[in-house]
Every structure is written in C-alpha cells, then in structure tokens.
Design goal:
The protein has 418 residues and is mainly β. The chain has a single domain, classed as TolB, C-terminal domain (Neuraminidase). A five-stranded antiparallel sheet has the order 1-26-25-24-23.
C-alpha cells in the first residue's frame, strides 16, 4: 500500500485532469525509467524564480538562501508560460556517494538542528533523539499523549531560541485530534510539555505535520484535511491549511484573515515547508491520484483542494509551480539551499531537486531512484552537507534493510544553471 493508495480509502477517490502539458510529465517518466538520475523540464506554473548564493539563518535553524527576482508567467490556453527574462543563478549538485550519519532509527519523521546537534522525532514511539555527527543518538525525551495510527504519531519538530532558552516544538496526533506542544530543552533533556495549539483535525491519514519557524519569528504549521476533503475549503477549520501563529499559539495581528490562524487554505496533505531570503514561503502537498505539488504560498491563497488537484487554471485558486505524477513523487520534506529546492519523495523513492533555467522554466532532477527507498525529509545538516532521511520502517514500502532507517549526508557543489 502506497501513500496515495491509502488516500483513496476515504471513499472520495476524486479523479481530475489538469491542463498541465502532459508531454512534459511523459518525458520525465520515461527518463526516470531509463536512468537512475533523470532531468525533465516542467512548466512554470506560477512566477519563475532565480536565486543567488547568499546564506541566511532562520530562527528554526533552517538554512535558506536568497531569491534574486521573480518574473510573471502569463499562462496561455495552450498551457505554455512566459519565461523569465532574468539571468540564471548558481545551482547546486550532489557530489559523490551519500554517507551514513545515523542508522537504526524507527520511523524518523522530522530532523531539526539545535546548536551543534540534531534532534529527530520517531513517529511511532513518540521519542525524540539527539545526536552530533560521529556520535550515536541518545534519547532526550518522550512526548506524552501521542497516538500513532498509520501516518499519525509524533510528526514535525521545530526549534526556537528565545532569550537564552531553547524550546522544542512538536506536532503530534492524539486519540481525538492533532496538536502542537512545546518543551524546554536544557542540559540535553526535554522538560515539561506546554500545549501551544490543539483541536487540529487528525486521524489515520492526511495529518500533514510539518512545523517550522519563519524568518518573521512566527510558527507555521502544515495541516492535512484528515480524509475529510471539505475541511480544506472551510475557513473555520484548522484542517487542510497552512497555519501561522505566534510562538505561544496566538493569532498574529497581520494574518491574512483577522482573528484566524489560517495563512492559506485548499491544501490536502502538506508536509514540507521552507523559505527564501525574501521571506517567501514554499510548501509541498500530496495529491490524490493525479498530481503532487510544489507551491509558492501566498497569504490568504487558496490552493484548490478538493475542487482542483494540480494545475486547474481557475482564477480563484493558486496553481502549483511544479507538479508531478503521484507515482513519481509523494512529497514530504522540503528545503531551499543556495538556488536549489530539494524535495523528499516517499512514493517515488527518490530525492528531487528543482532549479530554474535561463528562460525561467523549472528543471527537475530525480536522484537515487529506488536506491535508498522511501525518503521522508531533507535538510541542511550540521556539517554543511545535505541530509536526507529514509522512511522504510513505516510499513508502506519494501522490507527495510538491517540498517534502516537512516540519515544520509551528501556534499553539495555549485554549478552554473542551465
């Protein structure tokens, strides 16, 4: 059973057809069958981006890098896009064979950086582990009241350094719903739990789960529609949304809907969040049976689910920047590093990179197809390399190897954009 197969058990296996240029998807699929690394050009479905190499540090310890400019992409009835007229930027390529940072993990879901160490959430055991490169992981705490059911459990983590104190935030499932909590992290141990937000719809599937602090100091949470698609379009529901809140869980005064935590709506099962140097938010979203998405998230934007899956070309909904067939992707974690997006692919069992060519069109490359199994998360590691996290013990993929699950590290090197 795959991630997308399970999503159809809600009795609403909605089949939709996008106006996306299907020749592009067909070429990409053929290339991934022919070679272990494929390159395809996807249509620019929202403004095209060009990036520079300036490094910044976000409160959540996610390394992000600068976007130089955007250019409008006027979509025509034939599905083409106006290319960017800006010059290409440096992009990153993966160098060499990935090395193992940590092995023997059990359903790792999120990895975040706290100082010079990494923290890992284990979905089914509700444990949070900590490690430094070259050292074995150690248990620093267990989050109480976690209910692990299929894709629910202990999900995303985020870290906040505030006034000399370090807080670890966790998004997790309970017996009745999902919630976000935080715990002080002192002397290598987690303290008492404080509830930040509760009442997020949850269940056996479509829990979303990623959380991260943005460059504005606000906490963002990606929530799924818990197999009730109508929640995504309900502005009163916390399900199928990207939420924005203060570190204490309050509604910021400048949220797009007054008095509401909702930052954007119309999402199905978003699991990846990252930012560029201008504070622009990006997110991944699991599709149903047609298209998985990389979205440029605008305040108050409606991303269409369940009315639209993938690019619908409807003025009321925001189209994705890039979309993939669901068997190629199954997107979870997302990071933006020095002009390149990296996306973790679960169903497709590969790591994806997305850059933009000289004309402003996105270029997608698949890495490690089937080599490491399901990939849950990707991030900038403590050692400056790119880290990615396997998820072969979650019961969805093939039989795990004796070393699964693992965090792997691969160096990055700049190269000229195409």
């Amino acid at each position: 059973m795959t991630d997308h197969d399970f999503s159809e058990t809600n009795g609403r296996g909605l089949k939709r057809h996008s106006m996306f240029d299907t020749r592009t998807a067909a070429v990409a699929a053929a290339q991934t069958r022919r070679t272990r690394t494929s390159t395809s050009r996807a249509m620019a479905l929202t403004p095209a981006l060009v990036a520079t190499g300036k490094t910044v540090r976000v409160v959540a310890k996610t390394l992000t890098f600068a976007l130089l400019s955007t250019a409008s992409s006027a979509l025509t009835s034939g599905g083409a896009a106006q290319p960017s007229t800006t010059s290409p930027a440096t992009r990153l390529t993966l160098q060499g064979t990935p090395g193992v940072v940590v092995s023997g993990l059990h359903v790792p879901w999120s990895v975040v950086i706290a100082g010079n160490e990494a923290l890992v959430s284990q979905r089914d055991t509700a444990e949070i582990l900590a490690f430094r490169p070259g050292e074995p992981p150690r248990l620093v705490g267990k989050v109480p009241d976690v209910t692990a059911r299929l894709d629910g459990g202990l999900l995303g983590l985020a870290v906040l350094d505030e006034g000399g104190d370090t807080w670890v935030y966790a998004h997790h499932s309970t017996a009745s719903a999902n919630r976000i909590v935080r715990m002080p992290y002192t002397a290598g141990a987690l303290g008492e739990v404080e509830v930040v937000l509760e009442g997020i719809p949850g269940g056996r599937g479509h829990n979303g789960g990623r959380i991260a602090f943005g460059p504005d100091g606000m906490l963002y949470a990606a929530t799924g529609e818990a197999q009730d698609p109508d929640l995504s379009q309900d502005p009163e529901s916390l399900g199928g949304k990207i939420l924005r809140m203060t570190p204490d869980g309050d509604v910021p005064d400048d949220n797009p809907i007054a008095g509401s935590l909702v930052y954007s709506l119309g999402h199905r099962n978003p699991q990846g969040l990252t930012w560029d140097d201008y504070g622009q938010l990006w997110a991944t979203d699991f599709g149903d049976d047609a298209w998985d998405e990389l979205n440029r998230v605008e305040p108050g934007g409606n991303y269409g689910w369940p009315i639209v899956e993938g690019r619908g070309g409807k003025p009321d909904y925001v189209d994705p920047v890039v979309q993939w067939g669901t068997q190629e992707m199954g997107p979870s974690g997302l990071v933006y590093v020095d002009g390149t997006f990296f996306l973790a692919g679960l169903t497709g069992e590969r790591l994806w990179s997305v850059t933009f060519d000289i004309a402003g069109y996105p270029v997608t490359v698949a890495h490690y197809i089937g080599k490491y199994g399901r990939i849950r998360h990707v991030l900038a590691g403590v050692d400056g390399d790119l880290w990615f996290v396997t998820n072969n013990t979650d019961g969805r993929g093939d039989t795990p190897s004796e070393n699964d699950d693992r965090i792997l590290s691969v160096p990055l090197a700049p190269t000229d954009a195409p």
